[in-house]
Amino acid sequence: MSRILVTPSGPLSGSVRAGGAKNSVLKLMAACLLAEGRHVLTNVPRITDVDIMAEVLEAMGATVERGERPDILIVNTPAELVPEAPYELVEKMRASVVVLGPLLARCGWAKVSMPGGDDFGPRPVDMHLRALETMGAVFTPSHGNIEGRVESTVAGHPRLVGTRVVLEYPSHTGTDNVLMASVLAKGTTVIENAAREPEVSDLAAFLNAMGARITGAGTSRIEVEGVERLEPATHAVIPDRLVVATFLVAAGMTGGDVVVEDGRPDHMDMLIRKLSATGVEVAQGPDGLRATSTGRKLTSTDVATLPYPGFATDYKPLFVTLLTVTEGVGIVTENLFFGRFRYVEELRRMGADIRTEGHHAVVRGVGRLSAAPVRAHDVRAGAALVLAALVADGQTTISDAHHVDRGYEDLDAKLVQLGADVSRG
Predict the structure, then answer these.
(1) Which of 53, 107, 183, 348 sits between 20 and 30 A of 281, alpha carbons compared?
(2) How many beta carbons lie within 10 A of that of residue 183, not counting itself?
(3) Residue 202 phi/psi, 5° resolution?
(4) How far apart are the first and last CA of the chain?
């Protein structure tokens, strides 16, 4: 069983890099299915989820390998794909469902297992299916799989047809799936109520480099003019704003001074605003995004999760952990996913004063936490427990640390680089 051991060592200081965004690179890898040939992605993190997505692509006939630098990923997509994503791989990671759009666009049919991944409530793919159905796909559920086939034809061949797609909710993965499906569709597709995350814009930039014609990415209305074919491309993945957030919060909690060299403040306005409200100073400098809280007493603030550019649900475990050691009471409201407070029990084991009521958590700062054996339930919850352990008296053992490795490349080593006492056990 993988474990992370943490003993508090005072304020963190120094510089660190976050690396490429998990929630972008997985979609970029899926997009490689759209064109035969050699695709090159750079700034790719060495995380478990990338390895899982590589296995998904390889099961379809592609080859995936690291380049001369460890951050380079090379995807060779064959002329003929096997458009099936097997259960044993897809059930490990919900993001795998984004292969559905590319497979329907390129192959005309697909068989994808129902997605698995982190356990924090249902996130049905019905919205994805309804959107793709408006473009000419027909789906049949079968033994835990989604079987889709393109019934619309152009010049006698199956091909999705561009249309106006209105998403019920600005889903990140839903937008990604429709976006990738639409680039090879006949005619123009307009996606209304589209997700606005930086990762969606990153995907659109990669697709445009492949020859797609996409405008409006980063807004709630994306327009795609379908093309006949795409070509392989080279693309650099944007920095991971969630990893950046982890280091900013770590600096704030420990009274430290940390620079995240590849931090993008334009990707995380709301988090920076809320950190500033607690007393953590965050500013862009010549060396990167700097967070300082040296000599300050932090105060509580309220926060509610909303679709981007609102406060991301993935920030919430990190921010709840910060509030446990501030002065006052903060109310945190989860508006996006049901059941994403499971990590609260683990924080309570460390002395946190948190009460949950439905979609709300009331956090009363206690100033100092105490070490305890705890367990990571998902990626961000695991990272949040590591942060809590940085300011807990004694040595904390976090089990099931493999969850952390799904989204963080060498988190323990990077914290050590900043002066933390963190090791694997």
Answers:
(1) 348
(2) 30
(3) -65, -40
(4) 9
Tell me the pLDDT tens digit for each residue of 210-255. Answer: 999 999 999 999 999 999 999 999 999 999 999 999 999 999 999 9
Last residue of a domain, one of 236, 267, 287: 236
Q: What angle do CA 275, 303, 307 make, to 5 degrees?
A: 100
Residue-range definition of the domain harbouring residue 220: 22-236
Report the domain count for the chain. Answer: 2
Same domain for 349 and 309: yes
Give the DSSP H/E element, type plus range, for residue 348. Answer: helix 343-349
Q: In terms of domains, do 105 and 34 share one?
A: yes
Q: At residue 119, does pLDDT exceed 60?
A: no
Rounded Cα distance, 127 and 143, in Å: 20
Length of the chain: 425
Check 49, 51, 118, 126 and give the catalytic one.
118
Please state, in angstroms and rounded to a whole number, the distance separating the CA atoms of residues 262 and 273: 19
With H, G, I as helix, E, B as strand and everything else as coil, classify residue 330: strand
Please answer whether residues 18 and 262 qualify as being in contact, where contact means their C-beta atoms are separated by less than 8 angstroms: yes
Express each pLDDT in 261-275 by its tens digit.
999 999 999 999 999
Distances (CA, A) of 309 to 167, 268, 335, 405: 17, 8, 14, 26
Residues 161 and 57 in one domain: yes
Q: What are phi and psi of 40, to 5 degrees?
A: -125, 120
Contact 194/200 with Cβ under 8 angstroms?
yes
- Per the DSSP assignment, residues forming a β-bridge with 397 are 5, 373
pLDDT at 177: 96
Q: Does the annotation count 421 as an active-site position?
A: no
Q: What pairing do the DSSP bridges indicate for beta strands 63-66 and 257-260?
A: unpaired
Interval 86-91 mean pLDDT: 83
Dihedral sign of CA atoms 60, 402, 354, 387 in order = negative
Q: Which residue type sits at 261? A: E
Q: What is the DSSP letter of 217?
A: B
- C-alpha dist (Å) from residue 396 to 44, 225, 234, 254: 30, 53, 42, 16
